[in-house]
Amino acid sequence: MYPKSFKKLIDYFASLPSIGPKMAERLVLYLFKQDKDFLENFGTTLKELKINLRYCQRCFNISEENLCEICQDSSRQLKRICVVEDPLDVIAIERTKKYQGIYHVLGGTIGLVRKSEQGKIKLSELEERITNEKIKEVILATNPTTEGDATALYILRTIRPLGVKVTRLARGLSTGGDIEYADEITLSSALTNRKEFT
Amino acid sequence: MYPKSFKKLIDYFASLPSIGPKMAERLVLYLFKQDKDFLENFGTTLKELKINLRYCQRCFNISEENLCEICQDSSRQLKRICVVEDPLDVIAIERTKKYQGIYHVLGGTIGLVRKSEQGKIKLSELEERITNEKIKEVILATNPTTEGDATALYILRTIRPLGVKVTRLARGLSTGGDIEYADEITLSSALTNRKEFT
User: Which domains are seen in chain A, by residue range?
Assistant: First the structure.
C-alpha cells in the first residue's frame, strides 16, 4: 500500500522504543512534508552518532574523548563514585548540581530472568576501580524498581568485601506529590526514613 | 552536558510531533546502543525519503511515479472521488477494501485562524478535476473534527455550482464502542442517522 521507501522508514521508526506503528506513520508523513535540507541534516546526524562518540574508558559514560568531561574535570571529588544504570541518569544527577563526585555507568541492570546478562553490566570494572582508585564511598543510584533494587543488592554483596562505604539514594515522597495518591511502598519508606524536624 | 552530536540528534527527534525532550533523550540513547550498520541504514533511508517519492500529479497522494498506484489502477471507478485531508487517510480507507473509486488529497484543512492557509489546500485542483474528469460523486472524507467539518462545508459551497453529487461519511457510534461512554454529539448523530432494522 505504501511506496517502498516510505514503508522502510516507518519500519525503522516503529522499531524504536515507545513508538508504535501508527505513530511511526504520522512521523514519517510529517518528515515527508519537511524540506530536503532538514532530512539531509537529520539523516547525517543519525549516521554520525557513533562516529564522534565512545564510552569513557574510566566510567563508561558517553564521551567525545577517551575520558568523559566529568572524569576530566579536576574539580571533582575522586574518592566518591555514584553508580548509575545508564548515561541519562548521569545527566539527571548532574542537573541537581548537588553531587561533586564521579560516576560509574553500569550499562543496565542484572537480568532477573536471563542469568547470562549479569556479565554485561560493568561490575568487575567497578571492583577494579574501587581498589585502584582507593574509593571511599560508593553511592548506589540504580532505579527504585525491582530490577534496580536487585542490582543494587547484587552490587552490595559483591563489593562489601572490599571494605568501602556503600550508600543508596533515599526513598520517600516526591516533592510536589500528594500523600493521598502516594503508593503504599513509597509511603512506608517515607515513614521509616522520617527525619527530625528542626 | 551532553556531547554535541548527541545533543544535536536529541533536538532533531524532539522537533518531531508528539516526541518530547525526555522521550527524545531515551530514543537517542537507544540508538547509541545499536550497531553502526543500523544507524547507517536508518540515516540513509531518512535522507532518501524525498528522493524517490513525489506527489501524484492527479490526486496528490504520495507516489513513486508521476501517477500513484491507485490512479494507475485501471480497475478503479474513475467517476467517484473521495476527498481526504492527508495520505494516511487514503491508507485507512484502502484498508477497508470497500471503496473502488479514486482519491483527492487536500494536504490539510482550511485554516480556521489564518485565512491565507485556505489557498494551500488543493481545492482549485479538485474543481478542475470535477469538470475535466466528469466526476459524478464527491465523497467528503475529512476528519470528524471542527476543522474537518469546516473544510467539508467550505468545499461543499465551492463545488455545489458544478452540479456534482456531494456526500459526507456517516457519523455514529464506533463499532466496539460503548453507548454509556459515547459523547453527546456522536450519540445525537447516531440517533439522527438511525437506520431501519430489517
Answer: 4-47 (1.10.8.420), 59-168 (3.40.1360.10)
Q: Are B49 and A9 in contact (CB under 8 A)?
A: yes
* CB contact set of A148 (below 8 Å; sequence gap of 6+): A85, A109, A142
CA distance A76 to chain B (A): 15
- Which amino acid type is present at position B168? R
- pLDDT of B113-165, one tens digit each? 555 545 588 999 999 999 999 999 999 999 988 889 999 999 999 999 999 99
Q: What pTM did the predictor assign?
A: 0.75
Reported ipTM: 0.77
Pairwise CB contact (< 8 Å): B64 & A4: yes
Cβ separation A16–B6 shorter than 8 A: no
Q: Name the residue among A17, A31, A91 with its Cβ closest to that of B2.
A: A91
Cell of B85: 485531508
Q: Are the beta carbons of A3 and B42 separated by less than 8 Å?
A: no
User: Cβ B88–A26 below 8 Å, yes or no?
Assistant: yes
